[in-house]
Structures are given as C-alpha cells and as structure tokens.
Amino acid sequence: MVNGSQQALDLCARLLLDPGDEAAVEEPGYPGAKQLFLAHGAKLRALPVTDSGIAIDGVSALTKLVHMTPSHQFPTGVSMSLARRLEWIEWARTHGAVLLEDDYDSEYRYSGPPLPAMHSLADGAGIIYIGTFSNVMFRGLRIGYLVVPKELIEPFRIAKWMADRHSPLVEQAALADFLHDGHLERHIRRMRRLYKRRRDVLLEALDRHFGRRAIVRGDAAGLHMTVRFSGAGDLQARAERHGVGLSSTDIYYFSRSVPNEFILGFSAETERNLREGIRTLVR
Amino acid sequence: MVNGSQQALDLCARLLLDPGDEAAVEEPGYPGAKQLFLAHGAKLRALPVTDSGIAIDGVSALTKLVHMTPSHQFPTGVSMSLARRLEWIEWARTHGAVLLEDDYDSEYRYSGPPLPAMHSLADGAGIIYIGTFSNVMFRGLRIGYLVVPKELIEPFRIAKWMADRHSPLVEQAALADFLHDGHLERHIRRMRRLYKRRRDVLLEALDRHFGRRAIVRGDAAGLHMTVRFSGAGDLQARAERHGVGLSSTDIYYFSRSVPNEFILGFSAETERNLREGIRTLVR
C-alpha cells in the first residue's frame, strides 16, 4: 500500500533505476513518470503510442524499465491490443527488463470487452502492477498499491519503510470496510452508468456540431477522451475568451505536439454543461 | 506537510546528500535517520552524546548535514544545553552545513524551563526543523512537517510533489480543525499531567527498589527515560521470563553499547503496572 500511484512510481525508480540507466516512456505520456525518471538521473526514450498502444519497435536492449498505461493510455485513451501486450511481455522476458503497468484508469469501460491486465497475462513475471483509488474515490485520498514479483516484495517493503514508514491507517481501514461491504463495486457500477451518459452526450454534441472536423480517440473507457479539431486556428485562446476551458495535450509530448488536440474530461461535468461547451466551441 | 518525520528525513537526504557525502548522527541515535542516510550512500560519522547533547568536537569540516534531537535526545533523553546549541549554530554557519533539528518529542517537559528551538535561535539560517504529530496524537496518523530556509522551499515542494504529490487531505483538515478549536493544546496539557504522574511513579519505584543501582537519564521530558542497572548480569532475558519486557538501547549504538541500559517508556502504562514491573525487576 502506497500514497497513490505517484509513490508507487517513485519507489520503482528508487529501486530499479541507477543514474544513467535507460527508461522508456509513452509519447505522449504521463508527465509524473517522465519528470520522476529524469529526476532519478535516467536517460529517457520516448516510444510513440499507436492505435494498438505503446510501440515496441523503438525500444533498446539497454532499456531497464518501461512505463505504460495499457488500459486507457494517458493521455490518448488508446487501449493496448492483446497482441501488443504479448509482444511486450515476451520482450521483457527476453531482456530481463521490468514493465510498469500503470493501471490508473481501468475501472470504467463503456464498450468492447475488457482486456486482461498484462500482470495476469504474464503471471506476474517481469511486471509491476500499479493501481490507485484516487480515480474511483477522490484525489484527496492518497491510497494506491503495487503488485510486485515475489523476489521484490522485501526490497519494496524496506524502501517504503524508509520513505515514510507506512501510509495512514485511518483511511486504509475506512477503505477496507467500504470494499468489504460491497460499496466500492456499487459505486463503480453507478458511476459507470453516469459517466457513460455524459460520454455519450459529449460524443453526440461533437458529432452534431463538428462532424468530421473533430477526430475523437480514447472514448471507449476512462474519464476523458482526446479530440483533435481540424482547421481551427488557435482554438484554445479563443475558447477561453468565451468561458470554455480547454486542456491541450501539448505538455504530454516531448517534442513536436499535435495542434488543437485537447483532453476532454467528461466525468465531472453535467450533460447540460457538456452540450453548451461544445455549442460555444463551434461558434 | 509530510508523512511523519520519516518522510521529512527522506526528503532532506534526497535533496541535500549525494552518494559519498558525509553526514553526522548522534551516538547512540535514531536508527531511522542512520539507515536512511546509509541507504542514500552517505558516509556516517557518529558523534557521542554528552550531558549537554551531541558533541561538536568530532565533527569534520566535510560534514554536510547533522541529524540531532535537541529537545529530548533519542534515546538518551538528554536535552541539549543552550551553549551547545549556539556552538552548533555557529559551526553550521561557518561551514555552510545544514542541521536537521528533529524535534520529535518537544511537547512534554516536566521540569526546568524549555529551551528555545535551534531554529528560532538561528532565525532559521542553516537549520531544517522537523516536527511530527505522531507522538502527541497517534502513530497511525502520518502527519509531520518541515520548516526549511526560504531558498529551499521550492526544491522541497517539488521533491514532495514527485515523491507522492501531497499528504492525505482528510486527516490534515481534521487536524487543522482540532488545532484551531484549541483541542490539541488542551490534550497536551491533560497528557502532560498524566505522563508526569506516571513518570514520578516510575522514578519513585526505581529509587525505592534500586537506589543507586539504577542510573536514570532523560527524565525531564518526553515519553521515556533511559535507565542503566549496575551489577545485574543479563537482566533482559531474566526479566522477560517473569513477564517484564525491557527494551535495550543496544540497537541505537553503532559499535560498543552499554550493558543493561534500557529505554523505559512510561506514557502508555498505568501507575500500577509501572510499580509492579519495577518490583518484579528487583526481585
């Protein structure tokens, strides 16, 4: 048990990376992982995300650790294909590397069958599975967890003890009760219906107002999708002047980013707000 | 705000120590600091604790960081004298070193006037002050804090953000209310009276049953004292056979430890238990 997925990543970096080691990350990808690995002195290799998930072609034999978000890639929302998952597992096995399966957003899936976690596919070998309760509960709660190969349990236990002894017990006890009594399952079921309605409203509004000028990715799962608007000039600044906040994907790219590509989160907005936002945007 | 004093120490080590750097610690001293600095690749210098606190003589000009517990040295319970505090502050100023003032146990003082924190004596220059609520509240609560020189605020903020974003908000909000409404102050006042009675009972029992065969240190403050029993053979094993648990100071020494020196915590025991324990011990 750790303080959210960020501490899980930090413990992995502390135990598995030495300065100068090579680590691979998704491009575009989660800044929390990139900044952390750089702070640990790692050399980063950015691997592009295709429609099947993080590409395996560009990986080097020197890479010791790969950070990936297979359920709902951050930020694109792409779900890694079964074939790609198996390729990565095979690659990690061959090279003795570790895959960090950061499953930050696996609970909400709206269409298509859920794929098995890489951790289960590989029977745990070479995979560190990272989960968090921040997304399904609330972000002020700092409870995440790691599932590590058996031989790493003891080093991780000691590293956590040295870092901050243990995570707060009151929240862990409350969460355990919440789980045991079935509330979390009910909560996720209820939220899945609610979020799906909001997602559908957003997709519908995008389709009606933008049609083919809006290219949507990653809408099959999670709490956000990415949308690329074509031929729109500097959409973000103009939208902001009219009260619509847009979150660009810029900061998730290492080098060249994609113009007018945005993260559209739908879980925390009313259907009415989502409809009005898109209407304002098209105007 | 951090997850207890252990995370405060870890952030200090991460930001202020490079592998091979020299750090000084108290002998005997807190294992949580020693193990952590070693894990960060530091070379440790152990400085003996005298009746005025951690000795300054043996410190080297290369030392970058000194860990100290001036209010109630752990484990001896010695309180650092004003003169020694000023010497250390002057030394740190001259050498551009940092003193970690670990004030884990400053709230309970039973006799003599409280000394000003080194942090206030030095007006914050060269001192990082570490405080915790674990001792005055309960250990399952992981809330501690750091007061760092102005120029270090930003690096510490970033390091904490990378390590685990932030500490849990629910407990922080509850603790803030508890503080603002004056409950913490009342709680400490009430506990000080209770702990003082227990301490007095323990001192009295030691005096009656052991007299000069028990040498007591560090009873002016905190939740424990250290006691050295003379001419007693292997007291610990024999005490355990009779149901009295004794916590040796062995593990707090680097090299030679003091035979039959024990930490006697009195805050969590009833007066009756304390009296009976000492009676059993003398038998």
Short key terms for the protein model shown above:
homodimer; about 280 residues; alpha/beta; Aspartate Aminotransferase, domain 2; Aspartate Aminotransferase, domain 1; 2 domains; 7-stranded mixed β-sheet; 4-stranded antiparallel β-sheet; 9 helices; 11 strands; about 40% helix; about 20% strand
Question: Any overview of this molecule?
Answer:
The first copy, chain A, has 283 residues and is α/β, with parallel strands linked by helices. The first copy, chain A, has two domains: 4-180, Aspartate Aminotransferase, domain 2 (3-Layer(aba) Sandwich), CATH 3.40.640; 185-282, Aspartate Aminotransferase, domain 1. Helices cover 39% and strands 19% of the residues of chain A. Chain A has helices at 4-16, 31-39, 82-95, 118-121, 153-164, 169-180, 183-210, 235-241, 271-282; strands at residues 22-27, 43-50, 53-54, 63-68, 98-102, 127-132, 144-147, 214-217, 224-229, 247-248, 261-265. In chain A, the strands form two sheets. Chain A has a seven-stranded mixed β-sheet, sandwiched between helices. The first copy, chain A, has a four-stranded antiparallel β-sheet with strand order 8-9-11-10, covered by helices on one side. In chain A, strand 5, helix 4 and strand 6 (127-132) form a beta-alpha-beta unit. In chain A, helix 1 (4-16) runs parallel beside helix 2 (31-39), helix 1 (4-16) packs across helix 5 (153-164) and helix 7 (183-210) runs parallel beside helix 9 (271-282). The first copy, chain A, is globular. The first copy, chain A, starts with a helix and ends with a helix. The mean pLDDT of chain A is 94. Chains A and B meet through helix 1, helix 2, helix 5 and helix 6 of A and helix 1, helix 2, helix 5 and helix 6 of B.
